[in-house]
Amino acid sequence: MDVAGLELDDVHIAGLLDARKVLGGQHSPLAQVGTEIVDEHPPRDILHPGLSSKAVRLHYWQHRFGLEPPAGVRLYNTLTRAKEELHPVSAGNVGMYSCGPTVYRYVHIGNLRTFMIPDLLCRTLEYLGHRTRQVMNITDVGHLTDDTFDRGEDKMLVSARLEKKSPEEIAAFYTQAFREDAATLNIRPAAEYPRASHYIPQMIELTTKLIEKGHAYEVDGTVYYDIASFPAYGRLSGNSTDKLLAGVRGEVDPRKRHPGDFTLWKAAGEHRLQVWPSPWGPGFPGWHIECSAMSMSLLGDRFDVHSGGADNIFPHHEAEIAQSEGVTGHRVVSCWMHGGLLLLAGSRMAKSAGNFFRIRELEEQGFDPLAFRYLALQAKYRTKLNFSTDGLAGADRALRNIREHLIEWTRAGDVAAGEGTDDAALEKRFRSAIADDLDLPEAMALVSELTRSKVAPGVKARLLRSWDRVLGLDLERPEPRRALPPGAAEVLAAREKARAAKDFARSDQLRDELASLGIAVIDTPEGQRWRVQAVRQGSK
Predict the structure, then answer these.
(1) Whole-structure pTM over 0.90, yes or no?
(2) 3-state SS of 250-308?
(3) Residue 249 has what pLDDT?
(4) At 495, is the secondary structure helix, strand, or coil?
(5) Which pLDDT score, from 0 to 100, does residue 9 have?
(6) DSSP helix, strand, coil percent of the chain (3-state; round to 5)
(7) Which partner from 58, 358, 441, 490 sits 20 to 30 angstroms from 13, CA to CA?
(8) Which of 209, 202, 204 is nearest to 326 (CA)?
(9) What are phi and psi of 79, to 5 degrees?
């Protein structure tokens, strides 16, 4: 069965891995990982012709820099609903903007899965010879509790009131927490983290230009974007004005010309803590204008990639296109990348619903934080993914196994490989996988294939270390030796005696007893080896 190009709406990856025959026994890198892919394609039904780009010529790189050109990369563009070759605005240099957190609470692992996308893209592009510059914003003002219908309270001010702190204190605390959580998941820092509150003048300037160009209007100190002035509004999400009207809930703001119009600048009410002067009176920016201002201020009015979660497509990124293109008169972003949502028990993981995990909570339960990264790599970034601690436990075991293999292969060195092995072919296939819209499941299947191959141990070690520059699993990190639970040492000693006496029935019985204590035992010619595994809280 050829599954290399499989496109599925509902897939359970455990079955997919069986079909590909990449499990290779209990000690393979993908053993016992039960990631569930829920949806391959986000619902988009608008096709956009896009803009032409000049291909980078081979001789340009060879003669100007004495280098081979960066390898080509194809990315799925939400705007065109197709995979497209990436042609950077500046040859060999990729500029990308990523929607970052609203820093009013801790980020959860669903957020972190989304933030992994630009990290993986940067790692992939750099591995293939490109240079990257990633900007990720920090939203510290203007994100309302009901952003779909442009109403509600500012999330920053809600947290400030509940925690009895200033908005600045809330922003500083949760920004630092976000940076620490991202580092725990081995997400490399962006080149810049602009804060929305530091770009108010640029937001006012953009809003003024939109009014001048007929795209916006002011009513009682609040400025709205007139979606009727931008005929392409809806092309990213597939929404039309009729759909927007049908989706309106509750009372419509009577000051809007159309219920779908959205706020660029909002007049401040009494006693609001975050207020700035503007040509329309004191107020604060709308959420959407913030990203237009920050992205174009730092990356220019034409840049390569804009990433975010599927929940950002509408209204946030739809509005951002209308704003940025309304001001410039041309397409600003070449490729829109969106990650699938993380689900918990079939429902979207969200702070507002309270059904989420922090990466620190998983760590406190005994899991390696990078086991979550390993788990996420099993599914294409665009798919919805069901999370479970059982699946995470499988990823934790698989990650530890592959680290142990790497240690063994490094010690063994470059002994002769078996017949028919070709490490160059494996490297070529890895590069092909990551260049094809970040096909990390294919890359991880290749990792499993490598572990079972006849390639020399030292070559296996070199390939894994090289591939880990993209995977980010920190495979060379030594495993910490966890303390044995009470009574386990005595059971291990008893099992060693049973093995020496060739009482294998007793030995197997004691192995099961150790497993119930969370101890995995591996028999080797040198004796038994053991490891304390992550055990789901509440299990026995």
Answers:
(1) no
(2) CCCCCCCCCCCCEEEEEECCCCCCCCECCCCCCEEECHHHHHHHHHHHHHCCCEEEEEE
(3) 57
(4) helix
(5) 34
(6) 40, 15, 40
(7) 358
(8) 209
(9) -65, -40
